[in-house]
Amino acid sequence: MADETTTVFKYLSRLLLCILIYVVLKTAFSQLFSSEEEAPFQTWLKGNELTHLEKQLRDAGCVSVEEAAQLDVNQRALRRLKQRDKEHLESAIEELQDQLLLKQWLEDYSSLSLLPKLDDLDITAYSELHKVLDLDLDDITQDDEDPLKSIAVYLELNNLQRAVEKQMASDRPYELDFSLARRMWSGITHFVQTFGNVTLATLICAVGFAWVNGNYRTAQASGVSSRSRNAPIIDYITGSLVDPCGCLVDWGWEGSVPVGDTMSFTIKFYQRNGMKYAISDADQLAIEILVGQQRMACSVEYSETDYNLVKCAFTVRRSGLYNISIRLGPTPIKGSPFIREFLAGDVDPHKTGFVQHSSTVVVTQGLLHGLQVEPRDQFGNTCSPERWSKGHDDGDKRWHGFELKVTRVGDQEFDSFSPLYDIAPVRESQCISMIIKLDLAGCYKATATYHGTQLMNGDFNVLVLTETDIAKVSKTIKKKHVDSWYEATLLATNKEKLRKPRKVYCYISSKQFTIKEYYLMVIPKRLFTFRVCPATKFHFEGGEVDQSVPVFSIDDGGQPPIKLASKHRDIMAATFTKFLLMNIGGSETFQDKQKCFYSEVIKHHNRKLSVISLVIDRHNLLESSMKATKSLSTSEWCKKFDIHFVNEEGQDWGGLMREWVNLLCVSLFDPENKLFKRFEDDNNQALVHPNPNRPSYLSKLKYYEFAGKLIGKCLFESSVPTATASQMVVKARFTRSFLAQLIGLRVTHKYFETDDSEFFTTKVRYIRDNEVESMELNFSEEVYDSEGHLEQVVELLPGG
Prior knowledge:
Layout: H1 2-32, H2 40-47, H3 54-59, H4 65-69, H5 83-108, H6 115-120, H7 137-140, H8 147-169, H9 180-220, H10 226-229, H11 233-238, E1 248-251, E2 257-258, E3 262-268, E4 285-291, E5 294-296, E6 299-302, E7 309-315, E8 320-328, E9 331-332, E10 338-343, E11 353-354, E12 360-364, E13 369-374, H12 385-388, E14 402-408, E15 420-425, E16 432-437, E17 442-450, E18 453-465, H13 467-478, E19 484-493, E20 496-508, E21 512-519, E22 523-531, E23 537-545, E24 549-555, E25 562-565, H14 569-584, H15 590-604, E26 611-616, H16 621-629, H17 634-637, E27 640-645, H18 655-669, E28 676-678, E29 688-690, H19 702-719, H20 736-742, H21 752-755, H22 757-769, E30 780-784, E31 790-795
Parallel strand pairs: 2-10, 12-18, 26-27
Antiparallel strand pairs: 1-3, 3-7, 4-5, 4-8, 6-7, 8-9, 8-10, 11-13, 13-16, 14-17, 15-16, 17-18, 19-20, 19-25, 20-21, 21-22, 23-24, 24-25, 28-29, 30-31
Helix pairs in contact: 1-9, 13-14, 15-19
């Protein structure tokens, strides 16, 4: 139907254009080249019997009646004329001037259309103009049968008679005007009178054609919507089509507003003719809201009362510039895309924290050390200085509400030693700097707050070392693979105090913190080993042995904590902290650790230029994938994979690789495939972990090994700066306890809060918060089959 309408409209528009051109040309040529009417100059010569003087007049430069009226008979070109011809020529010129004067006067008073009527009544000259006063309607309209035309002529005659009376009463003489402006105006007047109707019809047709053609092109070429493209021809003529350039957007807010609210705006749609347009789903209205590369969800509501109005609402959580694109089909409306700015909200201390955070900060005695804080609102947006610079007082250390409390470990009073600290903004940044200077070496507890509320990572330790100790730490860091050792005293293990403290030696390297004991000062025995990782924590205590040796504890959550005393405590803790930050990228935040991981992966496993082609059977995906990658080494897993599916055509530009990974993730990690399972089988959103009761055909560990290699491949591809890296994701949500085991952490009951919320709420929390001695609980778990029968009792601890 749409194609037939398009074809009919094209033929009609072309036919209309041809008819219009034909009418214009025919009328113009018939008026300009009519054979029944002679040129005015020739007519004047014949009427005054001057044709025998035509050659002399043309030699004198006279080729028109206007030039004849200005002719001087005494000029040189006409001196040879006979006296009789000269007198006859002068008489004809005077008569012509009188006639032209009448014509000019009628033009000035817009009565030139009466000139033929006046000629019929022998009023041909300006000197005979007084005869007009004696005329009546019958004299003018005696040959007209159309009453409407007679009335128009009567009104025009009445105006002419008043003009004649006014002219006769005036003493100012009326003279001929042959100026260029006058001649141009006469030409325009003649053209309008001659071609007036044709010109008007031409303009109307041209405007109408342009209007219809514009409506058609708007609906067809731009493809506004199927509803407009399939509209009947009458809608193209009347302009009853939606006009994208006529749409109006009414924003529900002004200027830049803070995030946190649901914002809404309305769109009003109009037709090409200015009338309201009834918008509906058939018009393919598309509203897209982008913040950077992130697409925001929005709701679209069609008004039930105002049929041309649409309301759009979206929730603002992220600050920045919002790009709001509104389209009808592929065509954007007027002004689209729109740019609107949303500002960050007020500072939220629970989201505000230190940049490049570390749980232990090492500073030099007597020197300034800066810690940068990035203020953020409740949604994690970085706050501009305007959001936290109200009430600024340069003399107030609690600058804009931020405050830093520093206390020596073991002291109860704040600032008992009066340290020097200050808070100031960072230039060309939205951060503030907390600057601290401590003149006494030792271990301190620092707390950063905003209006009395502690920041997200505002609780940390400060180790103040002398310049000599700092030099020792730096020297140890440079000897990365050589252990440095320090003497210490072992006071307690697993929170049980030893009857007799034991002398031990602490060895620190970039990988581990080892505690050894020597028998007979020669034979070493390893007592404890802690990995240099964020899970290993140093806890500093205020109590001291013999009032001189600092005490501290070490706990990694995976083995019993120990308590040590050593005069080298601060040096050991500072060395451990430096090694830790060096291993994880200089900060304990996830973003910095992720950047460090990516850079280290690229450094040690640089991608080779070669490509490995893998042929995969889609119907036997897991087994064929394991078979295809069975012989690959670790370095070959880092190469680019070129995936081909059996009996399928396709070239892998990244899409087949992503599809292969997505399908494998379903085969491996979907609980329905029995390799992994959920704690809660009836919850599709529950986290997954390895299934201890998997079927026999999945009992081999090679499946888990392959799953680990696949995850490693995705992590490696994510670290490679390519266009496909962001799409290489693992579609699996592992339990937190399983992830903790992967990185070597001890599993505790706290992980059940996220892994199995129902079990944590009904059992773990109840046992933790209530007295349960009378319940005769033990450390065992009962296992039931699918029918609810008890299968076995698993002891969580030996003899539990």
